[in-house]
From TrEMBL:
Keywords: DNA-binding, Plasmid, Transcription, Transcription regulation
Species this protein is from: Cedecea neteri
Domain HTH lysR-type: from-to ranges: 4-61
Superkingdom of source: Bacteria
Pfam (any one): HTH_1
Name of protein: LysR family transcriptional regulator
Family: Belongs to the LysR transcriptional regulatory family.
GO molecular function: DNA-binding transcription factor activity; transcription cis-regulatory region binding
Gene3D superfamilies according to UniProt: 3.40.190.290, Winged helix-like DNA-binding domain superfamily/Winged helix DNA-binding domain (1.10.10.10)
Lineage: Bacteria, Pseudomonadati, Pseudomonadota, Gammaproteobacteria, Enterobacterales
Length: 305
């Protein structure tokens, strides 16, 4: 009987899970034609039919189901072995995730939980990034996966994908808005006294603070979003923030949106990984991308409502 490679077992397993050649191709960073050709070669070499094809519907044959079941056991055994090796190997005991400082980390909650359950011995380190250095760190293997508000520079040799946008809003504590209502909407010839609390993150490059409708007199520059959110919640000023990052505060009304009548802009969300050192852990996160994209779209609609 012809030998089955781990790559072939993974293809069979993914087609079984997704019911789609095209989805399997996307998850494995291959073209659908390459996956189709690989399956044809497997069937020819093994002398069995693996899949029944009925238009867009794909199902495993009895022989295909047997191979997929045994193959899944083998893939899980490889997973367990990799976990043990990574714990024993001091060179790579941690899965490093680089995340832009302004990214709504709550959107990763479910993914982080599921990853920890699947790979309980792998430690996850979340590295907050500010200046776009995450892409260089990804290329040099200092990071394993990146979620960034900055697109990957063309000279950096990694895989990247745009998955959504994070709406930017002006917000403040309700009492601050009520107390400074006239100052917020003052006329052009009036002197404003608003205090802006802003961060020095890369988010600043996406927005402008000299908005004519708002008369901002002073600014407080802070190093992180946690400090900014704390000061805003305490009613000390007004600030520009990604909406999904303050969804909880908007829901419990500790912060409110200042409606300017138009959008300030949107923060893009990019994800990235490099393929020179493939692992099951990176593959797992790549499979999570669609869920993350849906979460961004759903949560923004929910926050607007």
């Amino acid at each position: 009987m012809a030998k089955l490679s781990l790559d072939a077992l993974k293809i069979i397993n993914l087609i079984k899970l997704t019911g789609s050649f095209s989805t399997t191709a996307r998850l494995m960073n291959k073209t659908p034609s390459a996956i189709s050709y690989r399956v044809i070669c497997l069937e020819r070499n093994l002398g069995v039919k693996l899949f029944d094809r009925n238009g867009p519907l794909i199902s495993l044959t009895k022989e295909g189901e047997n191979i997929a079941t045994e193959g899944e056991w083998i893939l899980k055994a490889i997973d367990n072995l990799e976990c043990k090796l990574m714990i024993k190997n001091p060179r790579n005991p941690v899965f490093n995730l680089g995340v832009s400082e302004s990214f709504s980390i709550n959107l990763l909650g479910r993914s982080l939980h599921d990853f920890s359950v699947k790979y309980p011995k792998i430690k996850i380190k979340i590295n907050k990034m500010k200046d776009g250095s995450e892409w260089g760190d990804l290329e040099s293997s200092k990071l394993d996966f990146v979620i960034s508000n900055i697109s990957c520079p063309s000279q950096v040799d990694v895989k990247s994908k745009f998955i959504g946008e994070n709406k930017l809003i002006f917000c403040a504590a309700p009492e601050y808005i009520e107390r400074n209502h006239k100052k917020i909407w003052c006329q052009k010839d009036e002197e404003g006294e608003l205090l802006a609390i802003i961060t020095n993150s890369s988010l600043d490059s996406h927005v402008r603070y000299d908005i004519t409708q708002l008369k901002i007199k002073n600014k407080i520059l802070v190093n992180d979003f946690f400090t900014q959110f704390s000061l805003l919640e305490e009613g000390y000023g007004i600030g520009i923030v990604p909406m999904l990052a303050v969804k909880k505060q908007l829901d419990n009304q500790t912060l409110s949106i200042v409606d300017l009548g138009y959008e300030l802009g949107r923060e893009p969300v990019w994800v990235g990984w490099e393929n020179r050192n493939p692992s099951r852990y990176k593959s797992w996160w790549i499979e999570e991308l669609d869920k993350l994209k849906i979460a961004i779209q759903f949560d923004e609609q929910d926050a607007v409502q």
